[in-house]
């Protein structure tokens, strides 16, 4: 694991406030980290997109990737995605979330895989590992967890039909056998209460540490009836 060397931003956040794990080779850049955007900063209002100035990247232009974005608006947690791309050898661009400006701040979680433009090569399917999770607190109906693993990074996907939080801890805790020991992360578990919400999906905050996923209700209101599946897909640099 290495850390991305950030030399400047164009949206008011100091490089020392941004810690992003990365893995790269000639045809791949994986980014794993989070930072908070201050939408009241003078620098933020005049730019589009946000830019990270970084040390030399392995390629000069990439296809569009995505990052997760979370916000607290009127006491409700929302999440959406935004575009991420390599503009040149020293610049990573991140799309602004215009509806989140009035909240004062939001978090960008670089859960991002980028590949160069105009790349061709043999398609090699990754091996999917299905895990048999054990719920130790609360309940998770219809729960399924699988990963795709390499020596340098891991993709974890979680789906559940419904979550019932433990009455004391207000958490659902899930042990995931056979996960590598050196894997940890924090991420949103998303759910939707309607077909269209301008601020995005709602979410529960979750962590992964020592093979255990902890999903927290964290003050969320009870879900509306007929709410869809709870889900996440997170990229973790090892």
Q: What is the number of helices?
A: 1
Structural class, by secondary structure, is mainly beta
The outline comes out as globular
Strand content: over 45%
Percent in helix: under 10%
List the helices and strands in order: EEEEHEEEEEEEEEEEEEEEE
What is the CA–CA distance across the termini? 6 Å
Q: Determine the mean pLDDT.
A: 95
Gyration radius, in Å: 18 Å
Specify the biggest β-sheet: 14 strands, antiparallel
The number of strands is: 20
Residue stretches low in confidence (pLDDT < 50, at least 5 long) are: none
What report would you give on this structure?
- With 238 residues, this protein is mostly beta strands.
- 2% of the residues lie in helices and 53% in strands.
- It has one helix and 20 strands.
- It has one helix at residues 42-45; strands at residues 2-3, 6-9, 19-25, 28-38, 50-54, 65-73, 76-88, 91-94, 105-114, 128-131, 134-137, 139-141, 144-149, 153-160, 162-164, 171-175, 185-191, 201-209, 212-216, 230-237.
- The strands form three sheets. Strands 1, 2, 3, 4, 5, 6, 7, 8, 9, 11, 16, 17, 18 and 19 form a 14-stranded antiparallel beta sheet that branches.
- A hairpin with a 3-residue loop joins strand 13 and strand 14.
- It starts with a strand and ends with a strand.
- 33% of the residues are buried.
- The model has no long low-confidence stretch (mean pLDDT 95).
């Amino acid at each position: 694991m290495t850390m991305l060397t950030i030399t400047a931003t164009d949206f008011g956040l100091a490089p020392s406030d941004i810690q992003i794990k990365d893995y790269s080779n000639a045809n791949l850049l994986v980014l794993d980290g989070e930072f908070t955007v201050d939408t009241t900063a003078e620098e933020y209002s005049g730019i589009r997109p946000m830019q990270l100035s970084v040390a030399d990247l392995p390629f000069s232009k990439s296809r569009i990737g995505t990052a997760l974005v979370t916000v607290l608006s009127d006491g409700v947690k929302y999440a959406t995605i935004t575009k991420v791309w390599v503009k040149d050898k020293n610049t990573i661009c991140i799309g602004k979330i215009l509806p989140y400006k009035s909240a004062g701040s939001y978090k960008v979680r670089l859960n991002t895989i980028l590949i160069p433009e105009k790349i061709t090569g043999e398609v090699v399917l990754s091996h999917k590992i299905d895990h048999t999770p054990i719920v130790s607190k609360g309940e998770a109906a219809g729960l399924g967890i699988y990963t795709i693993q390499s020596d340098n990074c891991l993709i974890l996907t979680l789906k559940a039909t419904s979550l019932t939080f433990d009455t004391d801890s207000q958490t659902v805790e899930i042990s995931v056998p056979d996960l590598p020991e050196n894997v940890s992360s924090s991420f949103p578990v998303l759910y939707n209460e309607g077909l269209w919400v301008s601020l995005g999906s709602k979410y529960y905050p979750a962590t992964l540490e020592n093979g255990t996923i902890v999903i927290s209700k964290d003050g969320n209101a009870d879900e509306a009836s007929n709410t869809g599946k709870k889900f996440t897909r997170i990229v973790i640099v090892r």
